[in-house]
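Anyone? Bumping this.
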Amino acid sequence: MRGLALLLAALPAAIALLPLTWWIARRRSLGEGITWLSRGALTAARRVDLVLLDRWGTVTTGELKVASVEPLDPDHDRNLRWFAGALGHAAEDPVARAVARLSTRGKLSGVEQYDGVGISGSVDRHPVRLGRPDWLGMEVRDGLGVTVGVQVDARPIGYITVADDVRLDAAEGVRRLREIGVEPVLVSDDTEKNTRHLAESCGIERWHAAIGPADRDALTAEHRDRGAVVASAGRKPVPSADLVLGLDVEDGARLTDLDVGRIATALALSRRCARAAARTRGFALAWGALGAVLAALGTLGVAGAAVAALAGCAAVGAVAWRA
Amino acid sequence: MTETHSTMTLPGSALWMINSLEPHARAVAERVTERVVGTVPELGGRGRERFAHLVLTASHNAIRLFIDRALGRETPSTAVDDLFRKLGYREAARGRDRDGIDNAVQAAVAEISDDLRVRAAENELSAGALNAINRAVTAFIDHLTDQIAIGYASGVQARDQDVGVARARLLERLLAGGEADDVDVQAAVAQWEVPDRVSVLAVRLADDQTIQADVVGDLALTRPGGSPQVVLCATDDVDEVVARVRSAQPRSRVAVCWPVPASDVPAAWRWVNRALELVHSRVIPRRPVIDCSRYRTEIWLHAEPVMRRQLAQELLEPLFAETENSREILSETLLVWLETRDSAPAIAAKLGVHPQTVRYRWKRINELFGDALHDPEFVTQLLLVLKASVPLWLAGDQSDFQLYKSNQEK
């Protein structure tokens, strides 16, 4: 009988072997729009001390927005918005998508796209071109954002500038990352000037400009070589990173939205989970050891040991839940 | 008879009385006319007023000629003779016998004799002098009666000719805008009564084809040969006539004018020809039968092609300097605005474009034409020239632009 009481009293210590905190952390993360695809990812996340934030979707909404509309003749303001917007609906690049939001769809014909230069087509039978000012023979603008020129009937009628649509809570998300000891680094395919402006507008101190998809592996490796545990967050995160956070990743953490606040939440959850796991393990082992000693001394009978085991399991669960 | 008429010798008192008659020649002629028309009411028929006018003209001229001859003046009688021949021809052409016109002459002679007797009594003219005047008048009347007989004989001869020839002559008179009286006479000879309202048709025929008169029969007048071939009929018969023409010549195209009075036939013939020309230039849709009443605006606007071309060069110069695409859409928009004066959304709905596109085009139009668009005279001319020109351009006519370019290169 004493042996049975001993086994029952030590049961809470055995619960420490179960991944209770993993289950609880995973469940809580789902409520935050975060899906941990493996325990390893959660474990890796708690060690991350640097996160590479892709410009598209993390600190921005992932879309550009029109920053300014500058007609050459003030009377052409609405014409500029209408013709450029109508033509913009025919293209899928971020600049065209931003310009398209200036107007409704119109009757388009003869649309042609010129990679990296612009787009041309007819809107209500008027030939319209939208693209780099130098392509259109217009004066080049050197301001922030991306400025495109607009021609209607072979006559320039104005400029439209689009820029990153910075998330309203981007700075708060960046601050939270820093609070948990993670350094945010902005990675952008945009120019140095635009990247610096974006980083500064959301409080990021380090950035890498003009980084194309092919350069990202090397950039990640460079940071890892310096001893950092690197997370890569973006639409196409770098697989060689210690942790990947993305919308449709196969491993790591899958997020419903890439906003930097959610990334901070995911990394903060991983850290809390690690602490809770240690605390739960310690509590369970202590409870189990105390029960075993009392059972061995004969203080606890079988019934008492069973009650102590039940109370211990409940207490361990409560400790794990508080994580 | 002509000798008697031309060698009139009267005593001095008779000459004095005839001389005193001269200022009253018109009044005497009016009384003669009144008596003739009152005595022989069947003369004249439908054209009674015209007949009365003809009698007045003839009698007035005859009295003046008689006075001139009596007073020894050298005055040719040709015009008076023609008038009396015409009277005779007119009656014969209408198929009437001589009795009516003989009665008219007797009525006229009676009125003149009464007038002379009264004047002789008032002037205490001797019986010998009055007899001399009566003899001269009788000889003069005989001469005029001879002219009536000559005209009557011609009328009878004309009636006995081929009715087809007579109808062709009637059609010629109608197309030439002949006098109503003449047309009536020709209609009588042709045995084809000209209705109050007629329809004029222009028939475009395939090569070497023609429509013979028997195709339309008594329903219409036509002139075989040539294309377009003219066909003229009563408005009530136009459907039947068109059906016969199309049946005889299925490949023909018929332009039908709206009903017009006979006096407007020459104009109607121009209109139907113009309608066929506009079909050729694709301004009017190509259909087998063209109802001209539906295309009055086009027919009117293209009445003066040279003026249209000149106005286009003058008024539309800013548009001609644009690219072909720009010129087409700006002129189309300007025309709709000039026609409707609607809002941008309403014009956009008509043109099938976005309202902002219309506002943009309107700004461009204002840039091109400037303050001229505030000049009502300019705007009216612009509307007319665009209304006439845009359909031509849309049909592929490039002549305006080619002319503009050649003028620019000079």
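Late reply, but here is one note on the structure posted above: Chain A has a mean pLDDT of 91.
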